């Protein structure tokens, strides 16, 4: 992996306490690690994007009350079932409706954007809401090839080979500074005050290794790449170099987690999520189907195999079942934080799921 284009991070010494404290979460209640939230503003067939974003707003208010550490929004494009295509916009809205909850991107897909624009957007968010913003960066397009070309204004082949260079530019705009002979050396990102912590996101080993080499916190997408979770985390820890940001590794994983009053009800809730994922993998993204549609869908043997595999990687059931599954996953992975996602369009069902988890850990 070529990382020569990335700026050097300070080696050894002590991490800056302010940024390190913003990265490290606080465990609440009986939870052994901080619990956080990843939301996609899920749109169901019976809902609108406005409904989904309103639910996201209410979720932010509630999880702040219930003691969750942070809430991130994911960048996806061209997907009718996901309304979070512009994380920075949604983050600004959520920050105005909360007061203590950390808010961030999970993540901004850097190849879709000019690094200077991302630095300006998140510098502005940090200026508006000091000490509450996270900047999670990914290198996947977050969409199909045609839409990615439209985002990047190119008709050529798509590649993330220059991601380390783009990341280096972003970090420099955020305050690491360019070498004096760099063509961007005289350019300032404004606002140019305190900057949010930068996280690297990934679903394979590439970002894990890069995050370790740069001494940055790492977030792994266990909820859709579970087979790579342990190898990626091991690579991150093995590659880690202390930096001005962190003295030691800090990793979280995203987990599809849905709690309901009973195991049977939770299964009924997650079936539509699995069907949505099946359709997405077949190149047919759409709004999330109803529970009835998911129950009555005639799965082929191959489709059923996919759904069964997806369900194995999700944590769902009664509050006791979910707590047990999350505890086992944390022990197996050794992560410092769990970020829960419940891709449920119905507001009451989604809020109830997170409230049940909070109660299971005596956070409320």
TrEMBL record:
- What CDD domains does its record include? Flavin_utilizing_monoxygenases
Q: Where is the Luciferase-like domain?
A: 36-336
Gene3D superfamilies (alphabetical): Luciferase-like domain (3.20.20.30)
Q: Name one Pfam family in it.
A: Bac_luciferase
Region spans: Disordered: 1-23
InterPro entries hit by this protein: Bact_Lucif_Oxidored, CmoO-like, Luciferase-like_dom, Luciferase-like_sf
Q: Which residues are listed as membrane-spanning?
A: none
Per the record, the domain of life is Bacteria
Family, according to the entry, reads as follows: To bacterial alkanal monooxygenase alpha and beta chains.
Q: What is this protein called?
A: LLM class flavin-dependent oxidoreductase
Origin organism is Saccharopolyspora oryzae
């Amino acid at each position: 992996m070529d990382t020569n284009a990335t700026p050097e991070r300070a080696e050894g010494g002590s991490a800056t306490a302010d940024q390190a404290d913003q990265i490290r979460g606080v465990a609440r209640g009986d939870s052994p690690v901080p619990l956080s939230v990843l939301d996609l503003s899920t749109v169901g067939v019976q809902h609108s994007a406005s409904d989904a974003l309103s639910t996201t707003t209410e979720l932010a208010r509630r999880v702040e009350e219930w003691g969750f550490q942070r809430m991130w929004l994911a960048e996806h494009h061209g997907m009718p079932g996901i309304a979070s295509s512009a994380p920075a916009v949604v983050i600004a809205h959520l920050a105005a409706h909360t007061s203590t909850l950390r808010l961030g991107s999970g993540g901004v897909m850097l190849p879709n954007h000019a690094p200077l624009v991302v630095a300006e957007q998140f510098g502005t968010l940090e200026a508006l809401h000091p000490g509450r913003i996270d900047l999670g960066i990914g290198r996947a397009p977050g969409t199909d090839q045609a839409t990615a070309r439209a985002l990047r204004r190119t008709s050529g082949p798509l590649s993330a080979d220059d991601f380390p260079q783009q990341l280096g530019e972003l970090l420099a705009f955020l305050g690491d500074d360019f070498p004096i002979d760099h063509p961007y050396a005289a350019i300032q990102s404004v606002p140019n005050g305190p900057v949010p912590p930068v996280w690297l996101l990934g679903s394979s080993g590439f970002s894990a290794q890069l995050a370790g080499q740069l001494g940055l916190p790492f977030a792994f997408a266990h909820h859709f790449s579970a087979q790579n979770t342990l190898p990626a985390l091991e690579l991150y820890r093995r590659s880690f170099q202390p930096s001005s940001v962190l003295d030691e590794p800090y990793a979280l994983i995203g987990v599809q987690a849905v709690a309901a009053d009973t195991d049977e009800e939770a299964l009924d809730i997650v079936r539509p999520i699995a069907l949505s994922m099946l359709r997405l993998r077949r190149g047919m993204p759409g709004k999330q189907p109803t529970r009835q549609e998911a129950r009555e869908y005639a799965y082929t043997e191959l489709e059923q195999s996919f759904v069964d595999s997806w369900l194995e990687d999700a944590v769902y059931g009664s509050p006791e079942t979910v707590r047990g599954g999350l505890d086992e996953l944390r022990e197996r992975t050794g992560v410092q934080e769990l970020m829960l996602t419940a891709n449920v369009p119905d507001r009451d069902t989604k809020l109830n799921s997170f409230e049940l988890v909070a109660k299971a850990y005596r956070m409320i």
